[in-house]
Amino acid sequence: MPEDVQKSALRCYLGIDSGSWISSTAKTLSRRGSGKRCPVAGIWKFSMTMAIVSGLVGVMGTGESVQGETLTVAAAHSLKAPFQEIVPIFESEYGATVRVVYGPSQTLRRQIEQGASIDVFLPEAVEEVEKLEIKGLTLNGGSRVYAQSSLVLVMARESQATSVDFSAARPDRAIRIALVDPKSSALGELTAKALKYLDPTYRSRSRLLLAKHTDDVLMLVHTGEADVGIVNRVDAINSSHVHIIDETPAGSHTVIRFGQAVVWTCRNESRGIADEFFDFIMSPRIQKLLLKYGFDSVPANG
Question: How many CA atoms lie within 13 A of 198 on its CB side?
Fold first, then answer.
Protein backbone atom coordinates (compact mmCIF):
# COMPACT_ATOMS: atom_id res chain seq x y z
CA MET A 1 0.00 0.00 0.00
CA PRO A 2 1.49 3.40 -1.01
CA GLU A 3 2.72 5.53 1.86
CA ASP A 4 0.43 8.48 1.10
CA VAL A 5 -2.61 6.17 1.13
CA GLN A 6 -1.53 4.79 4.50
CA LYS A 7 -1.21 8.27 5.96
CA SER A 8 -4.53 9.35 4.50
CA ALA A 9 -6.28 6.35 6.02
CA LEU A 10 -4.63 6.91 9.38
CA ARG A 11 -5.64 10.57 9.40
CA CYS A 12 -9.22 9.52 8.71
CA TYR A 13 -9.06 6.96 11.52
CA LEU A 14 -7.85 9.62 13.95
CA GLY A 15 -10.52 12.08 12.85
CA ILE A 16 -8.23 14.36 10.82
CA ASP A 17 -9.38 15.49 7.32
CA SER A 18 -11.99 12.72 7.40
CA GLY A 19 -14.13 14.58 4.88
CA SER A 20 -11.47 14.33 2.17
CA TRP A 21 -10.77 10.60 2.69
CA ILE A 22 -12.86 9.18 -0.16
CA SER A 23 -11.77 11.62 -2.80
CA SER A 24 -8.07 11.61 -1.83
CA THR A 25 -7.92 7.82 -1.67
CA ALA A 26 -9.66 7.37 -5.01
CA LYS A 27 -7.35 9.84 -6.75
CA THR A 28 -4.24 8.26 -5.23
CA LEU A 29 -5.24 4.74 -6.22
CA SER A 30 -6.03 5.93 -9.73
CA ARG A 31 -2.65 7.61 -10.12
CA ARG A 32 -0.79 4.60 -8.73
CA GLY A 33 -2.65 2.01 -10.80
CA SER A 34 -1.29 -0.03 -13.72
CA GLY A 35 -3.20 1.97 -16.30
CA LYS A 36 -6.61 0.47 -15.67
CA ARG A 37 -8.97 2.54 -13.58
CA CYS A 38 -10.08 0.47 -10.54
CA PRO A 39 -13.63 1.09 -9.27
CA VAL A 40 -13.30 2.60 -5.80
CA ALA A 41 -16.53 0.97 -4.64
CA GLY A 42 -15.09 -2.47 -5.29
CA ILE A 43 -11.97 -2.05 -3.20
CA TRP A 44 -13.26 0.33 -0.50
CA LYS A 45 -13.58 -1.99 2.49
CA PHE A 46 -10.40 -3.92 1.82
CA SER A 47 -8.31 -0.82 1.07
CA MET A 48 -9.49 1.06 4.13
CA THR A 49 -8.83 -1.86 6.47
CA MET A 50 -5.36 -2.54 5.08
CA ALA A 51 -4.45 1.14 5.02
CA ILE A 52 -5.43 1.69 8.63
CA VAL A 53 -3.64 -1.42 9.87
CA SER A 54 -0.53 -0.72 7.79
CA GLY A 55 -0.57 2.93 8.74
CA LEU A 56 -0.82 2.25 12.44
CA VAL A 57 2.01 -0.25 12.27
CA GLY A 58 4.07 2.28 10.34
CA VAL A 59 3.44 5.01 12.90
CA MET A 60 4.40 2.78 15.82
CA GLY A 61 7.41 1.60 13.93
CA THR A 62 8.68 5.14 13.42
CA GLY A 63 8.35 5.94 17.13
CA GLU A 64 5.33 8.27 16.92
CA SER A 65 3.23 7.75 20.08
CA VAL A 66 -0.45 6.84 20.16
CA GLN A 67 -2.48 8.37 23.01
CA GLY A 68 -2.60 5.97 25.99
CA GLU A 69 -5.63 5.16 28.11
CA THR A 70 -6.63 7.40 31.01
CA LEU A 71 -7.88 6.05 34.33
CA THR A 72 -9.59 8.11 37.04
CA VAL A 73 -9.25 6.76 40.57
CA ALA A 74 -11.08 8.10 43.64
CA ALA A 75 -8.99 7.28 46.70
CA ALA A 76 -8.73 7.85 50.44
CA HIS A 77 -6.13 10.30 51.75
CA SER A 78 -4.40 7.33 53.41
CA LEU A 79 -3.24 6.20 49.97
CA LYS A 80 -1.34 9.39 49.11
CA ALA A 81 2.03 8.13 50.31
CA PRO A 82 1.96 4.62 48.77
CA PHE A 83 0.38 5.88 45.54
CA GLN A 84 3.42 8.09 44.93
CA GLU A 85 5.24 4.84 44.29
CA ILE A 86 2.44 2.55 43.08
CA VAL A 87 0.87 4.80 40.42
CA PRO A 88 4.12 5.45 38.45
CA ILE A 89 4.79 1.69 38.38
CA PHE A 90 1.35 1.01 36.93
CA GLU A 91 1.61 3.82 34.38
CA SER A 92 5.00 2.56 33.23
CA GLU A 93 3.96 -1.07 32.87
CA TYR A 94 0.49 -0.59 31.40
CA GLY A 95 0.99 2.55 29.33
CA ALA A 96 -1.91 4.33 31.01
CA THR A 97 -2.28 7.74 32.61
CA VAL A 98 -3.75 7.60 36.12
CA ARG A 99 -5.53 10.62 37.61
CA VAL A 100 -6.13 10.27 41.35
CA VAL A 101 -8.83 12.24 43.16
CA TYR A 102 -8.36 12.22 46.95
CA GLY A 103 -11.14 13.01 49.37
CA PRO A 104 -13.31 11.88 52.29
CA SER A 105 -14.78 8.49 51.48
CA GLN A 106 -18.41 9.43 52.02
CA THR A 107 -18.03 12.49 49.79
CA LEU A 108 -16.44 10.44 47.01
CA ARG A 109 -19.11 7.76 47.32
CA ARG A 110 -21.91 10.29 46.99
CA GLN A 111 -20.23 11.79 43.92
CA ILE A 112 -20.14 8.34 42.32
CA GLU A 113 -23.81 7.81 43.15
CA GLN A 114 -24.54 11.10 41.37
CA GLY A 115 -22.63 10.03 38.25
CA ALA A 116 -19.16 11.56 38.72
CA SER A 117 -16.62 10.33 36.16
CA ILE A 118 -14.80 7.80 38.35
CA ASP A 119 -13.46 4.45 37.16
CA VAL A 120 -12.09 2.82 40.33
CA PHE A 121 -13.05 3.60 43.95
CA LEU A 122 -10.62 2.97 46.85
CA PRO A 123 -12.09 4.45 50.06
CA GLU A 124 -10.62 4.25 53.55
CA ALA A 125 -13.22 1.68 54.59
CA VAL A 126 -14.73 -1.14 52.54
CA GLU A 127 -18.15 -0.25 53.99
CA GLU A 128 -18.34 2.66 51.54
CA VAL A 129 -17.89 0.29 48.59
CA GLU A 130 -20.47 -2.08 50.05
CA LYS A 131 -23.02 0.75 50.11
CA LEU A 132 -22.53 1.15 46.36
CA GLU A 133 -22.65 -2.60 45.86
CA ILE A 134 -26.05 -2.86 47.58
CA LYS A 135 -27.38 -0.32 45.07
CA GLY A 136 -25.92 -2.25 42.13
CA LEU A 137 -23.34 0.45 41.40
CA THR A 138 -20.21 -1.73 41.29
CA LEU A 139 -18.78 -3.85 38.49
CA ASN A 140 -16.32 -6.77 38.17
CA GLY A 141 -17.88 -8.83 40.96
CA GLY A 142 -18.08 -6.10 43.59
CA SER A 143 -15.65 -5.08 46.32
CA ARG A 144 -12.39 -6.64 47.46
CA VAL A 145 -10.49 -5.92 50.68
CA TYR A 146 -6.83 -5.35 49.85
CA ALA A 147 -5.39 -4.15 53.20
CA GLN A 148 -6.31 -3.18 56.74
CA SER A 149 -5.21 -0.96 59.61
CA SER A 150 -6.20 0.10 63.15
CA LEU A 151 -6.87 3.28 65.12
CA VAL A 152 -4.12 4.97 67.14
CA LEU A 153 -3.76 8.02 69.36
CA VAL A 154 -1.13 10.52 68.20
CA MET A 155 0.64 13.60 69.56
CA ALA A 156 2.82 16.23 67.87
CA ARG A 157 6.48 15.16 67.69
CA GLU A 158 7.69 18.47 69.12
CA SER A 159 5.09 18.55 71.91
CA GLN A 160 6.49 18.85 75.44
CA ALA A 161 3.27 17.64 77.03
CA THR A 162 3.13 14.38 78.92
CA SER A 163 1.89 11.52 76.80
CA VAL A 164 -1.57 10.19 77.60
CA ASP A 165 -3.44 7.06 76.63
CA PHE A 166 -7.02 6.52 75.49
CA SER A 167 -8.30 5.92 79.01
CA ALA A 168 -6.87 9.23 80.25
CA ALA A 169 -7.69 11.37 77.22
CA ARG A 170 -11.41 10.55 76.92
CA PRO A 171 -12.74 11.87 80.29
CA ASP A 172 -10.37 14.86 80.56
CA ARG A 173 -12.12 17.88 79.03
CA ALA A 174 -8.88 19.86 79.27
CA ILE A 175 -7.46 17.61 76.54
CA ARG A 176 -8.51 18.58 73.02
CA ILE A 177 -9.04 15.49 70.86
CA ALA A 178 -9.11 15.82 67.06
CA LEU A 179 -10.86 13.15 65.01
CA VAL A 180 -12.47 12.75 61.61
CA ASP A 181 -16.10 13.88 61.45
CA PRO A 182 -18.38 10.81 61.34
CA LYS A 183 -20.66 12.73 58.95
CA SER A 184 -17.96 13.12 56.29
CA SER A 185 -15.91 9.95 56.46
CA ALA A 186 -16.17 6.22 57.07
CA LEU A 187 -13.08 6.54 59.25
CA GLY A 188 -14.98 9.03 61.39
CA GLU A 189 -17.82 6.53 61.78
CA LEU A 190 -15.40 3.81 62.87
CA THR A 191 -13.71 6.20 65.31
CA ALA A 192 -17.05 7.14 66.86
CA LYS A 193 -17.98 3.46 67.24
CA ALA A 194 -14.65 2.71 68.93
CA LEU A 195 -14.99 5.65 71.34
CA LYS A 196 -18.58 4.72 72.16
CA TYR A 197 -17.46 1.17 72.90
CA LEU A 198 -14.76 2.46 75.25
CA ASP A 199 -16.99 5.08 76.87
CA PRO A 200 -20.69 5.46 75.96
CA THR A 201 -20.66 9.00 77.39
CA TYR A 202 -17.57 10.17 75.51
CA ARG A 203 -19.43 12.93 73.63
CA SER A 204 -20.36 14.75 76.84
CA ARG A 205 -17.12 14.04 78.66
CA SER A 206 -14.60 14.79 75.91
CA ARG A 207 -13.52 17.98 74.15
CA LEU A 208 -13.74 16.98 70.50
CA LEU A 209 -12.50 18.81 67.40
CA LEU A 210 -14.02 17.40 64.19
CA ALA A 211 -12.15 17.47 60.88
CA LYS A 212 -13.11 16.53 57.31
CA HIS A 213 -10.36 13.95 56.84
CA THR A 214 -7.17 12.55 58.35
CA ASP A 215 -4.86 15.22 56.91
CA ASP A 216 -6.86 17.85 58.78
CA VAL A 217 -6.63 15.88 62.04
CA LEU A 218 -2.86 15.64 61.68
CA MET A 219 -2.62 19.36 60.95
CA LEU A 220 -4.68 20.25 64.03
CA VAL A 221 -2.30 18.20 66.18
CA HIS A 222 0.82 19.52 64.45
CA THR A 223 -0.18 23.19 64.87
CA GLY A 224 -1.16 22.71 68.51
CA GLU A 225 -4.87 23.38 68.00
CA ALA A 226 -5.47 19.86 69.31
CA ASP A 227 -3.50 18.09 72.02
CA VAL A 228 -3.99 14.61 70.55
CA GLY A 229 -5.64 13.08 67.53
CA ILE A 230 -7.19 9.76 66.54
CA VAL A 231 -6.20 8.45 63.10
CA ASN A 232 -5.46 5.12 61.49
CA ARG A 233 -2.00 3.65 61.92
CA VAL A 234 -1.11 4.12 58.24
CA ASP A 235 -1.54 7.91 58.37
CA ALA A 236 0.37 8.17 61.63
CA ILE A 237 3.32 6.18 60.31
CA ASN A 238 3.53 8.22 57.11
CA SER A 239 3.37 11.60 58.88
CA SER A 240 6.55 13.38 59.91
CA HIS A 241 4.64 15.66 62.31
CA VAL A 242 3.19 13.19 64.83
CA HIS A 243 4.10 10.06 66.74
CA ILE A 244 1.93 7.26 68.11
CA ILE A 245 1.34 7.37 71.87
CA ASP A 246 -1.32 4.68 72.27
CA GLU A 247 -3.25 1.94 70.48
CA THR A 248 -6.96 1.35 70.76
CA PRO A 249 -7.63 -1.56 73.14
CA ALA A 250 -8.30 -4.98 71.69
CA GLY A 251 -11.96 -5.70 71.10
CA SER A 252 -12.92 -2.08 70.47
CA HIS A 253 -14.01 -2.78 66.88
CA THR A 254 -11.26 -0.69 65.33
CA VAL A 255 -10.11 -2.85 62.43
CA ILE A 256 -10.18 -0.65 59.32
CA ARG A 257 -10.57 -2.67 56.12
CA PHE A 258 -9.51 -0.94 52.91
CA GLY A 259 -11.59 -2.02 49.93
CA GLN A 260 -11.83 -1.26 46.22
CA ALA A 261 -14.16 -1.74 43.27
CA VAL A 262 -14.64 -0.74 39.66
CA VAL A 263 -17.77 1.41 39.75
CA TRP A 264 -20.73 1.97 37.44
CA THR A 265 -19.44 5.36 36.27
CA CYS A 266 -16.39 3.70 34.70
CA ARG A 267 -16.20 4.76 31.05
CA ASN A 268 -16.44 2.03 28.40
CA GLU A 269 -13.04 2.94 26.98
CA SER A 270 -11.48 2.66 30.46
CA ARG A 271 -13.09 -0.59 31.57
CA GLY A 272 -10.21 -2.80 30.50
CA ILE A 273 -7.51 -0.73 32.19
CA ALA A 274 -9.73 -0.33 35.28
CA ASP A 275 -9.90 -4.11 35.67
CA GLU A 276 -6.12 -4.24 35.23
CA PHE A 277 -5.64 -1.67 38.00
CA PHE A 278 -7.99 -3.60 40.29
CA ASP A 279 -5.95 -6.79 39.81
CA PHE A 280 -2.68 -4.83 40.09
CA ILE A 281 -3.60 -3.62 43.60
CA MET A 282 -4.36 -7.20 44.64
CA SER A 283 -1.08 -8.57 43.23
CA PRO A 284 1.48 -10.00 45.72
CA ARG A 285 4.17 -7.40 44.97
CA ILE A 286 1.82 -4.45 45.56
CA GLN A 287 0.50 -6.11 48.69
CA LYS A 288 4.09 -6.34 49.90
CA LEU A 289 4.72 -2.71 48.99
CA LEU A 290 1.67 -1.62 51.03
CA LEU A 291 3.21 -3.25 54.10
CA LYS A 292 6.14 -0.88 53.67
CA TYR A 293 3.76 2.06 54.18
CA GLY A 294 2.22 0.69 57.36
CA PHE A 295 -0.77 -1.22 56.03
CA ASP A 296 -1.51 -4.60 57.58
CA SER A 297 -2.03 -7.64 55.39
CA VAL A 298 -5.49 -9.14 55.08
CA PRO A 299 -5.96 -12.52 56.75
CA ALA A 300 -6.52 -15.43 54.37
CA ASN A 301 -10.13 -15.66 55.50
CA GLY A 302 -10.59 -11.87 55.42
Answer: 25
Residues 229 and 165 in one domain: yes
Same domain, 104 and 29: no
Q: How far is CA 169 from CA 13, 106, 158, in A?
A: 66, 27, 19
Question: Each residue of 94-104: pLDDT tens digit?
Answer: 999 999 999 88
Secondary structure (3-state) at 211: strand
Contacts 24+ apart (CB under 8 A), 128-135: 128/186, 128/259, 129/259, 129/260, 129/261, 130/259, 132/261, 132/263, 132/264, 133/261
Please spell the DSSP secondary structure of 101-152, one letter per residue: EE--HHHHHHHHHTT---SEEE-SSHHHHHHHHHTT-B-TTS-EEEEEE-EE
Write the CATH number for 141.
3.40.190.10
Could you tell me the pLDDT band of residue 42, with boundaries at 50, 70 and 90?
very low
Is 221 a domain residue?
Answer: yes
**Residue 278 in contact with residue 120, Cβ under 8 Å?**
yes
Residue 175 lies in a domain: yes
CA 259 – CA 121 distance, rounded (Å): 8
Average pLDDT, the chain: 79
pTM: 0.71
C-beta separation of 150 from 179 below 8 A:
no
103 near 213, Cβ under 8 Å?
yes
Tally of domains within the chain: 3
Mean predicted confidence (pLDDT) in 131-144: 91
Which amino acid is present at 96?
A
Are both 155 and 243 inside the same structural domain?
yes
Same domain, 33 and 166: no
pLDDT at 292 over 50: yes
In a domain, 301, yes or no: no
Find the domain containing 228 and state its range. Answer: 151-247
Q: State pLDDT tens for residues 189-241.
A: 888 888 888 878 777 767 899 998 889 999 999 999 999 999 999 999 999 99
Residue 298 belongs to some domain of the structure = no
